[in-house]
């Protein structure tokens, strides 16, 4: 399977994942804003893990 990955796309996906995780972490102590905390945490984990996988695939394609 020949799958081309851009390194900037991988970095942006990692940044979005970390942002979602930080949003969920910062909102967990506010009693009025309990909606969507688990969703942001799950999406943050998915984006972070997939961004790391994309970055590894990009580095493997470059031969590093």
Rounded to an integer, what's the Rg over CA atoms? 15 Å
- Per DSSP, what share of the residues sits in E-state strands of 2 or more residues? under 5%
Note the total helix count. Answer: 2
From N to C, what is the helix and strand string?
Answer: HH
Low-confidence stretches: none
Report the structural category: mainly alpha
Whole-number tally of structural domains? 1
Keywords: Membrane, Transmembrane, Transmembrane helix
Transmembrane segments: 6-25, 37-57
What order do the helices and strands come in, and which of them pair?
Layout: H1 7-27, H2 37-62
Helix pairs in contact: 1-2
Overview of this protein structure:
The protein has 64 residues and is mainly α. The protein has one domain (7-62). 73% of the residues lie in helices and 0% in strands. It has 2 helices and no strands. It has helices at 7-27, 37-62. Helix 1 (7-27) packs antiparallel against helix 2. It is rod-shaped. The two termini are 19 Å apart. The model has no long low-confidence stretch (mean pLDDT 85).
């Amino acid at each position: 399977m020949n799958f081309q990955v851009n390194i900037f796309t991988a970095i942006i996906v990692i940044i979005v994942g970390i942002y979602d995780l930080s949003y969920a972490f910062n909102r967990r102590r506010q009693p009025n804003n309990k909606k969507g905390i688990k969703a942001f945490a799950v999406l943050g984990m998915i984006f972070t893990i997939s961004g790391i996988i994309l970055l590894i695939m990009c580095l493997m394609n470059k031969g590093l």
